[in-house]
């Protein structure tokens, strides 16, 4: 009997060792890194309450020699969101907040433009992407506006779906949630997360701002792929949207966060969150449709996907999976939990604009779960190519339908002026050297005539680049409105 028990224990130990074989995992990671041309990746794997794998691959900056390590800091993008809902959960545990509190209980100036949504929107709604607001990311991305002003401005923007009817990813609502955390706690979101989550977890190699990460001893440089070449890009400061995606961290620090997640809210004997509260953040709230063909290609074995409170919940080849991705200029991240098997996977990369972390996550999950290989690199690269082709086809179709034999209805000076939009503020059209120029937020671009009273922005790499700007004349032939970034701006009276 004793011999059989010993054999069983040894078999279990051998099976676990096989699943976390460093050489096999390293091979998978390095193959994926090279397939996607990523300069550097850091990966950590947690099992139960232990880190069973932590390693860096490649370099911190393309063309340089400093290697990525498990302590290299990367921007983690929207994987920040789960820290915001955990902070909310701590306040829920203390009776200072309820998930179903009206948002205005904690932020009196918060509003949504639709009366029904405005009257009923709760804290749960704003962290489950179901308010009816679409992204509207240009209100914060590269904008001059601070957090409070962004929250006030989004209240003037029309909803694109009816309230609670659909999943629509929305960063400003997570800003709002973090802002509420700070108000309730009498501090800031950053200080609350640092004091109530990071310090108890011993996360001392993380920060909240692109301005701070460059003072760390070991940090990665952001990159993008342009015309087939990987190049470094400026680091994006997103302090004004911080609770939605501003954290920088390392896989060693995030492994502590994942250990707490897998241990039901406890870290090294200290309870951070009640288990019931933690599980609520990982409970489905909003259905995420899987009707996009590209999405189905890379979601083999997934039949149902939902958004919880800062986490995505899905079935994965017969297993439960909880995860969230992150993306900000030049960086990608992925944090994944396999709760039934007590595994956690953390992936940080210094190349933006691709789904490498999700691809690698799937390959590593298959290895850990003893599932047959799928060939994820090929599938994800196929989808990436299709999306690029679709974008190029959309541009070609637009240009093919252009009426090249037209000219503007009015002289260029007639288009100049100041225009305004309730949520998006003021835009200015000027004439410079015989060319129209558009000035809005912190973005400026020259306009080339496209057709009739429609112009085209300069094909640069700003959010306004290579997009249509359409003017509309009133019955008297005066320029009344200008439309760009899917927003209409009305001429201001002199």
How would you briefly describe this protein structure?
The protein has 494 residues and is an alpha+beta fold. It folds into two domains: 373 residues, DD-peptidase/beta-lactamase superfamily (Beta-lactamase); 80 residues, Lipocalin (Beta Barrel), CATH 2.40.128.50.
Would you write up a description of this structure?
This protein is of the alpha+beta class and 494 residues long. The protein has two domains: 19-391, DD-peptidase/beta-lactamase superfamily (Beta-lactamase, 3-Layer(aba) Sandwich), CATH 3.40.710.10; 412-491, Lipocalin (Beta Barrel), CATH 2.40.128. The protein has helices at residues 2-19, 22-35, 81-93, 115-120, 123-126, 147-154, 171-185, 189-201, 210-213, 242-245, 251-262, 275-281, 293-297, 356-368, 376-400; strands at residues 40-47, 50-58, 74-75, 223-226, 229-232, 248-249, 266-267, 270-271, 286-287, 305-307, 312-316, 319-328, 331-338, 343-349, 417-421, 425-432, 435-440, 443-451, 454-457, 468-473, 479-484, 487-491. The strands form five sheets. Strands 2-1-14-13-12-11-10-9 form an eight-stranded antiparallel sheet, sandwiched between helices. Strand 7 (266-267) and strand 8 (270-271) form a beta hairpin. Helix 2 (22-35) runs antiparallel to helix 14 (356-368).
């Amino acid at each position: 009997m004793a011999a059989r028990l010993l054999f069983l224990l040894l078999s279990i130990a051998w099976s676990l060792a096989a699943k976390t074989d460093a050489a096999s995992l390293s091979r998978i990671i390095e193959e994926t890194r090279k397939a996607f041309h990523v300069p550097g990746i850091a990966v950590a794997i947690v099992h139960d309450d232990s880190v069973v794998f932590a390693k860096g691959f490649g370099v911190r900056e393309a063309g340089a020699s400093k290697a990525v390590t498990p302590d290299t800091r990367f921007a983690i993008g929207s994987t920040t969101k789960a820290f915001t809902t955990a902070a909310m959960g701590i306040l829920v545990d203390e009776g200072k907040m309820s998930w179903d509190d009206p948002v205005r209980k904690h932020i009196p100036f918060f509003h949504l433009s639709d009366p029904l949504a405005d009257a009923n929107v709760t804290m749960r709604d704003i962290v489950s992407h179901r308010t009816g607001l679409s992204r509207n990311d240009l209100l914060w991305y590269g904008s001059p506006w601070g957090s409070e002003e962004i929250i006030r401005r989004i209240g003037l923007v029309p909803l694109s779906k009816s309230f609670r009817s659909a999943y629509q990813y929305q960063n400003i609502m997570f800003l709002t949630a973090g802002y509420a955390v700070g108000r309730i706690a009498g501090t800031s979101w950053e200080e609350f997360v640092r004091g109530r989550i990071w310090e108890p977890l011993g996360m001392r190699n993380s920060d909240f701002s692109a301005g701070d990460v460059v003072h760390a001893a070991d940090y990665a440089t952001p990159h993008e792929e342009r015309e087939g070449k990987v190049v470094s890009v400026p680091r994006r400061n997103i302090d004004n949207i911080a609770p939605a995606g501003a954290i920088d961290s390392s896989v060693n620090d995030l492994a502590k966060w994942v250990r707490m997640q897998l241990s039901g809210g406890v870290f090294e004997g200290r309870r951070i969150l009640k288990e019931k509260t933690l599980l609520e953040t990982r409970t489905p709230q909003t259905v995420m449709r899987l009707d996009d063909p590209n999405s189905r290609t890379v979601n083999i074995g997934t039949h149902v996907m939902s958004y919880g409170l800062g986490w995505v919940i899905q079935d994965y080849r017969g297993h439960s999976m909880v995860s969230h991705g992150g993306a900000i200029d030049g960086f990608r991240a992925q944090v994944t939990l396999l709760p039934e098997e007590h595994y956690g996977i953390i992936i940080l990369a210094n190349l933006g604009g691709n789904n490498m972390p999700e691809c690698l996550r799937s390959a590593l999950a298959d290895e850990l779960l003893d599932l047959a290989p799928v060939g994820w690199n090929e599938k994800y690269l196929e989808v990436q190519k299709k999306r690029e082709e679709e974008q190029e086809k959309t541009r070609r179709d637009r240009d093919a339908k252009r009426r090249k034999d037209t000219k503007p209805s009015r002289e260029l000076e007639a288009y100049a002026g100041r225009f305004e939009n309730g949520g998006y503020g003021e835009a200015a059209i000027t004439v410079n050297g015989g060319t129209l120029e558009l000035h809005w937020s912190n973005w400026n671009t020259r306009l080339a005539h496209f057709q009739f009273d429609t112009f085209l922005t300069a094909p640069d790499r700003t959010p306004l680049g290579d997009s249509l700007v359409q003017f509309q004349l009133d019955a008297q032939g005066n320029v009344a409105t200008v439309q760009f970034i899917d927003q209409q701006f009305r001429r201001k009276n002199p």
